Amino acid sequence: QAQLVESGGGSVQSGGSLRLSCAASGNSYSTYSLGWFRQAPGKEREGVAALGRSFGTSYADSVRGRFTISRDNAKNTLYLQMDSLKPEDTARYYCAATTRATRAMTTAWRLSPRIWDYWGQGTQVTVSS
């Protein structure tokens, strides 16, 4: 079972940058796909980016070109570099792990919360104008 702890959230102005980290532990964690999700008050949780063990990177259209997901397997750490932040990026951000994401899945399925099994506690990101 994977255990995930996010950090790096905070408040920034529009156009600023922030890097989120997710420290992971658990047996065979390196075999898991990893991803970032976010949820704003009153809205559904949505997939932001994913990095698979059997596929590369997947991004939501709203963040592609601005956010970058990466993974340091030696440190069991997942990162999300967020640049050119906008007020609409304001949300609580969660990292997640799964063994069920596959290369055959569409991007929409890879970023669907329903296939992700393990979740961190989240870290708040607030972007002001």
Give a structural overview:
With about 130 residues, this protein is mostly beta strands. The protein is about 5% helix and about 45% strand. It has 1 helix and 11 strands; from the N terminus they run βββββββββαββ. The strands form 2 sheets. Strands 2, 4, 5, 6, 9, 10 and 11 form a 7-stranded mixed sheet that branches. It has a 4-stranded antiparallel sheet with strand order 1-3-8-7, with no helix packed on it. The longest helix has 4 residues, at about 105-110. The radius of gyration is 14 Å and the shape is globular. The model has no long low-confidence stretch (mean pLDDT about 95).
| Percentage beta strand | over 45%
- List segments where confidence is low: pLDDT < 50 over at least 5 consecutive residues: none
- Helix- and strand-based class? mainly beta
Element-level helix/strand string: EEEEEEEEEHEE
**What is the average of the pLDDT values?**
93
Tags for this entry?
four-stranded antiparallel beta sheet, seven-stranded mixed beta sheet, 129 residues, 1 helix, mainly beta, single chain, 11 strands
Give a concise summary.
With 129 residues, the protein is mainly beta.
Fold topology:
Layout: E1 3-7, E2 10-13, E3 18-25, E4 33-39, E5 46-51, E6 57-59, E7 67-72, E8 77-82, E9 91-98, H1 107-110, E10 118-119, E11 123-128
Parallel strand pairs: 2-11
Antiparallel strand pairs: 1-3, 3-8, 4-5, 4-9, 5-6, 7-8, 9-10, 9-11
